[in-house]
Amino acid sequence: MGLAQMITEQSLSVDSLLTAEDVAERLRVSKDWVWDHSSRRLPYLPVIRMSDGALRYRASQIEEFVMERERVSRMHRRNR
Fold first, then answer.
1. What's the pTM?
2. What is the pLDDT of residues 20-56, one digit of tens each?
3. Is residue 30 domain-resident?
4. Which domain, by its residues, includes 46?
């Protein structure tokens, strides 16, 4: 097994599920902002809708969301 595969398997096993409150705290926004961005088109927070209606978020996907927003912000600054 290669290092990349070990890292991937390790990250999948520890990719915790976050609540809307956790995400709001991580992004320093309100829970309403998190809920709004969990149901809109863009920018869309990737969400897992549980059978009881609860929303959960993978920590890795929230980090990807942040990196993508950063990339888009840099592109907009270059185009000014």
1. 0.72
2. 999 999 999 999 999 999 987 777 899 999 999 899 9
3. yes
4. 15-78
Bridge partners of 17, per DSSP, are 58
The number of folded domains in the chain is: 1
**Which tens digit of pLDDT belongs to each residue from 55-68?**
999 999 999 999 99
Shortest CA distance to 29 belongs to which of 67, 62, 60? 62
Structural domain includes residue 1: no
Cα separation, 21 vs 68, in Å, equals: 21
Token pair, residue 46, equals: 């990737």
Distance from C-alpha of 54 to C-alpha of 25, rounded to nearest angstrom: 17
In angstroms, the CA 45 to CA 23 distance is 10
